[in-house]
Amino acid sequence: MTTFVPSCADAIIENLRISGQPKPQSRRSCSGRTVAATLSSMRLSGHIIGLLKEYMQDLVEQARQESQAQEAFGFSAPPYQPDHAIADLLAILDDRIESEGVQVGLPIEFLHEMWRRCNEARSDITDRVWLETNIGPAGPSKARVRELTYAAIIDQLEESASDE
């Protein structure tokens, strides 16, 4: 039995319309399997990866500013893990897609695709960040964890793009 997911189906139909491809006969013809297949085959253009890098840099800079503010008031930073960095990235993607997504060329289903890709690569990302924070000269600050996590995500995305 296939399920109909209106918001995802609408998003796929809209992205097909934007890219000039014919849309399905009806919304009902866009099943859950079609949605999953479209998401798993989504190619990330250089433009989208560039936007992603920009958002990631914003988050790293925000973490640096937070650390400076905490140090100025004598607070110590709470532990911060790659999972937190990924959650923060997905949160900013959700916000940016909602506020400016179509205008800057982000597909509506991009958030779901990023969640899937980050989820699949989570253990590799966590291992890489742990290793680099423990052998590097700097400790695992929030900014450093974000920087390493996002570098690992970009590497994974570029690696998967070259495999396609």
Any overview of this molecule?
The chain is mostly helical. The protein folds into two domains: 1-41, no CATH class; 44-163, no CATH class. The protein is 73% helix and 0% strand. The protein is built from six helices and no strands. It has helices at residues 6-18, 32-40, 46-72, 82-104, 110-135, 142-163. The longest helix has 27 residues, at 46-72. The two termini are 30 Å apart. Mean pLDDT is 78; it is low at 1-9 and 15-40.
In short:
The protein is built from 6 helices and no strands. With 164 residues, it is mostly helical.
Given helix and strand content, the structural type is mainly alpha
Estimated radius of gyration: 18 Å
Count of helical regions: 6
Assembly level:
single chain
**C-alpha geometry:** globular
- Following the backbone from N to C, one meets helices and strands in this order, namely HHHHHH
Largest sheet: none
Tell me the distance between the termini: 30 Å
Give the total of domains: 2
Q: State the share of residues found in helices, binned by percent.
A: over 70%
